[in-house]
Every structure is written in C-alpha cells, then in structure tokens.
Please model this.
Amino acid sequence: MELYFIRHGQSINNVNSGNPNYMEHSDPFLTEVGIEQADYLAKYFKEKQHITGNKAWNVQNQYGFGFTHIYTSLMERAAATAAPTARSLGIPFTAWTEIHEEGGIYAREAGANQKGLSGRPRSFFEKSFPELKLPNDLGERGWWNRPFEAEDERQLRADKVFAELIARHGDRDGQPEARIVFVSHGGFFMRLVCSMLKLPWRQAALDMKSWFLLNNCSISRFDIRKGEITVCYINRTDHLPAHLVS
Model:
C-alpha cells in the first residue's frame, strides 16, 4: 500500500494566525488562496494519475500516482480541498470521520470553555460535495456533537485509524496494490506519524521538542508493504507555484 497524506488548503484561520483581533472559526473554510491551491493540486494529480509503464522505481512518483481511493476528514477545509481532485479523477471519494484535526469542532470564544459543537450536517455535504460518500449515521444534527477532544484521546484515535487503514487496504496476495489519499490536517499528521513509526509525542534530542511541518496542500508519501514502512517524502510543494506556497 502507498499512503499519500495531503494537508488541506489555506483556511481562514491559517491566514489570520498572526492577527490578534481575529476570532478563530470553529470549522474554518478555505480562503481564495486555499481554493486555488486545491485546484492546482487537482490539475497536477489529473496530469500525473496514470502510471506510465511498469516502473519498479517510482519513489518520487516521476511515473505517476495511480490513486485508488480518496478519504477526507469532515472538516470543511479538508473536504473542499479533496473535492476537486476527486471530481477530476473520478475514483472512490469517502468521508473518514476520525481523520479530523485535534480537538474536533469546538467553540473558540473566550469563556466558552472549548464547548463541543455540532459540525456540518448531512445536507451541507450533499449540496457542496455530492460525490462524497458519507457515513450512514450522519444526519442533520451534524457529524461532531461531542465534547472537545481531550489530549489523552488523540493518539489512541490515530492508532485506531492506522490499524483500520491496514485492515481495509493492506497488501494482499493476488490483489492490486492500494494507493490511498488522506486529505487531513497538520496535527493529525503528527499523531499518525507517531502511530506508524512508534515515535514519542513531540520529543527530540537534548530535551528539545519535535514537529513535522506541513504546508497547505503539501504531499507526503509512506509505503507500507512486506512488514516495513518506508518514508518516501514529506511536505512536497513543488506542484504549487511559489506564490501559493503557504
């Protein structure tokens, strides 16, 4: 299996991260830059989807990607990033609720105590992303409807996602290899990498802290086969023009 992790495009929260007068949105939408990033990503993948020949060495995807499935979190910025690629490639496009960003959907106002909110309802996704296969239990009450996700729940969630990914798409004799896209979030990427590589959370040498930086609409690739996980690349942005790297 090949796993490709795409961080969502630039959101309204991202672009205002240094603005002291901005109140963070609980489920931020893409900016115009983020929409353009997602469109560039879709065009790039459309041009590179077909694998040109039986190439044994395609570690930088110089001979194409050949995606088989696209999964997205149900946070608006992720679904809006994934949708143009799903539309252009016409491959299975499915919501995976548990690949959401850390914390979930919660109130950001002072005094709100990070109260859990509802998240977008089924009608929003059906109207905005009709190609997206939604969970059967998603209704008009929204997809979150839980308290703020506590710190001790986050790594366990990533562990479960990785185990489920292997159960769904791990290599099997006689079956074609799956090439999976996750469109998700920077914090969840850190958790997933810690799950895959058994890394301690945010710990580095000499009492320093670690972090894997991801740009908006960057691509990271992991190959998972024959009892081994290979980190092929992290945070590629060469498919974007310089003015869209954020």
Notes: The radius of gyration is 18 Å. The mean pLDDT is 96. The CA atoms of residues 7 and 217 lie 5 Å apart.
